Amino acid sequence: MPPGKVLQPVLKMKVDELFLYWLSEASTQRMLQDCLRRIKAPGRDQPTPGDGEQPGAWPTAPLAAPRPSGLEPPGTPGPGPALPLGAASSPRNAPHVRGTRRSAGTRVVQTRKEEPLPPATSQSIPTFYFPRGRPQDSVNVDAVISKIESTFARFPHERATMDDMGLVAKACGCPLYWKGPLFYGAGGERTGSVSVHKFVAMWRKILQNCHDDAAKFVHLLMSPGCNYLVQEDFVPFLQDVVNTHPGLSFLKEASEFHSRYITTVIQRIFYAVNRSWSGRITCAELRRSSFLQNVALLEEEADINQLTEFFSYEHFYVIYCKFWELDTDHDLLIDADDLARHNDHALSTKMIDRIFSGAVTRGRKVQKEGKISYADFVWFLISEEDKKTPTSIEYWFRCMDLDGDGALSMFELEYFYEEQCRRLDSMAIEALPFQDCLCQMLDLVKPRTEGPEGETGLTRLGRTPLPAGKITLQDLKRCKLANVFFDTFFNIEKYLDHEQKEQISLLRDGDSGGPELSDWEKYAAEEYDILVAEETAGEPWEDGFEAELSPVEQKLSALRSPLAQRPFFEAPSPLGAVDLYEYACGDEDLEPL
Predict the structure, then answer these.
(1) What is the pLDDT of residue 562?
(2) What is the CA angle 269-272-278, rounded to 5?
(3) Residue 135: closest CA among 221, 209, 48, 32
(4) Are 371 and 335 in contact (CB under 8 A)?
(5) What are φ and ψ of residue 161, in 5° steps?
(6) Lowest mean per-residue pLDDT among 42-56, 312-326, 376-390, 468-482
(7) Phi, psi values for residue 382, rounded to 5°
(8) Cα–Cα distance for residue pair 258/251, rounded to 1 Å
(9) In this predicted model, which residue has the larger pLDDT, 309 or 99?
C-alpha cells in the first residue's frame, strides 16, 4: 500500500458504491424530480394515465404482494420500490379508475401525517429534584417578616448590631448561632449594624428561594456567584462562636490563637462533610451531614467539649499539642523527618513519602517545599487514629493506591509490606511471609474481585499470588476491620498490637451494641488526660524549650484561675488573622488529587 493512504472500511465503500449507482439511474432521477414537484405543489392531484401520466410516478397497489417475473396479468401494475432505497419501476398502463384511487390514497396518507402528535409522557412526571430544598406550602412569609419587623422595632433606629442578632435569629426561626451568618449575610460587617429594611429584603429572598436549613445556611455564607462553601466562608461564623460561646470564654484574651482553633474546626468540618474531597461543600453534602444539628446544639450545650464531632476544645488541644511536638522550629510547617517522629516512628517511610507526594494534601507550594501545614496535619492525625471512618479509609486508600487505578493490587500491598518485614527483622521478630499475610488480609476483607481460579486474589493450595486479585475502596468500606488491614502494611506499633489480640475479640469490640466512643474520641480523651497528668506532675517537655512555652501549662493555668486570663500556646510569630493553609492556595488546588 502506498505511504500515506488510509484504509477505509470495506462495507462502507460498498454501500457508497451502490448508492451512487442507484442515484445515477435515469429512472431514479425521474422519480426524484416527480417527488420534488409533489413537494412544491402538495394540493395538486396526481395525474392519471389517461391524463398523460409521466414515467416514474408513485407505485400502484402499494399493499399488493410482488409476483414472480412473467406471471403478472396484462395491465396489472407491478410493485413499486420502497423509497428511498429502491429503484423506480418502469411505467405501466393502468385503468383510469385505479389511477384515481391511487391519488386519493395518497391524499389520505398526507392528511394522517398532518395530525398532531400526542403529548410526551415525560410532561406528566412530577418534579423530583430540589437542589435548594423541597418547597413548603406551610411557610407564611408575611407572618415571619412581621415578626422580624417587630423585633427590629425594639432596637435604636431599627438597626441591629451583632449583639442584637440573637433575638433576630430567633425571630427568623433559626438556631441562636446562626446570628453570625445572618449578620454577615445582610452586610452588617461593612457598617457595624443592619437596618430592618435591608434585613427583611435579604430574608424574604432567602425564604422564597431556599426551602430548607442547608440551602439557607449555604446562601448566607457563600461568596457572590457561588453555590457552595469554601473554607474561608466559615471564618466569620466560627469567630462569632469563639467570641460568644460560654465554653470558650477563656479564649477571649488569647486572640492570636483564635485562628488555630478556627482552623482546626474548619478542617474537621470538611473532613466529615466534604465527602467529595473537592474543597467545596454543597447543599447536598451539608444536608446529608450532622453539622447543622451540631450548630443547633451549641445553644443548648454550655460545655463545648461535649460536642466532640466538630467543636470540642479538648480535641483541638490534643491536635495542636501533637503538632507542637513535631514542629521543632515552630514555623507551623513540618517535613517528612518531623512527621516520622510521630508515635515513636510507628509509620513506615514509604507511607510518609506517599503522604508528602500530594495524594492527600492540597497546595502546590508546600508540596514543592516538602512540608505540610497544620491544616494537613489535622487530617493526618484524625485519619491515623481512627481508620474506620469513610474519610480515613479513603485517606489511606489514596496513599496505598500507587498507580491511581482505583484498586490495590497484590504488588502494591507487597510494596508496603516489604518495609514492615525489614522492621520486624530488626526487632528480632519473625515476620509472616507475604503470601500468608496476603491470605489473611483477603480473608479479612473478602474482596469481590475474584482471580481466574475462583478464589479472591490467590489459590488456596499453592498460595500463589494472582495478579487479577484486587481490593477496591468499596471492599474496605464494607470491612469492619479496615484499621487492621491498613496497620498491617504501614504501622508497625499498631500491627503488633493487633497481632496480640484475637480476631474474635476485635470483631466483638466493633459489634458492641449501643452508642460507643469512636477510636478518635478514645484517643483524644486518653491523650488529653496524659497531657494534664504530665503537667500536674511537673514533667518538663523534652523538646529543648523552656517550661513557659508549654501549651499544657499555660492551658491549665488559664483553667485554674479564670480571673488571670493570659495568652497560651506561645509561638514565635502570633497571627491575628486566620490563614487556613499558611500559604497561597488557588482554585485549582482545591480539586482532589
Answers:
(1) 35
(2) 85
(3) 209
(4) yes
(5) -90, 180
(6) 42-56
(7) -65, -40
(8) 7
(9) 309
> Which residue type occupies 349?
T
pLDDT tens-digit profile of 509-544?
655 555 688 999 999 999 999 998 888 876 555 554
What is the DSSP secondary-structure string of 209-239?
A: H--SHHHHHHHHHSPTT-SSB-GGGGHHHHH
CB 341 within 8 A of CB 290: no
| Mean pLDDT across 134-146 | 82
Query: Tens digits of per-residue pLDDT, 183-195?
Result: 999 988 888 899 9
Q: Is the pLDDT of residue 76 over 80?
A: no
Q: What is the DSSP string of 289-336?
A: SSHHHHHHHHHH-S-GGG-TTTT-HHHHHHHHHHHHHH-TT-SSEEEH
Peptide bond into 84 cis (omega under 30): yes
Identify which of 272, 248, 273 has the alpha carbon closest to the alpha carbon of residue 261.
Answer: 248
Three cell numbers written together for 490: 504501614
134-284-310 Cα angle (round to 5)? 120
Q: Tell which residue, 329, 313, 370, 395, has the closest CA to residue 559.
A: 313
Distances (CA, A) of 519 to 487, 488, 525, 537: 14, 17, 10, 27
Q: Are 487 and 474 in contact (CB under 8 A)?
A: no
**DSSP of 136-190, one letter per residue?**
-TT--HHHHHHHHHHHHTTSGGGEE-GGGHHHHHHHTT--GGGHHHHHHHTTHHH
| Secondary structure class of 159 (helix, strand, coil) | strand
Chain centroid offset of residue 238 CA: 23
Q: Would you call 472 helix, strand, or coil by DSSP?
A: strand
Which is more confidently placed, 504 or 126? 126
- 306, 322 in Cβ contact below 8 A? no
Alpha-carbon gap, residue 361 to 592, rounded angstroms: 9
Residues constituting the chain: 593
Query: Residue 92 to residues 23, 48, 78, 420, 487: CA-CA distances in angstroms?
Result: 22, 12, 8, 92, 89
| Helix 551-560, helix 313-326: angle, nearest 10 | 150
Q: Report which of 405, 406, 471 is spatially closest to residue 438, judged by C-alpha positions.
A: 471
Read off the C-alpha cell for 217. 445556611
3-class secondary structure, 114: coil
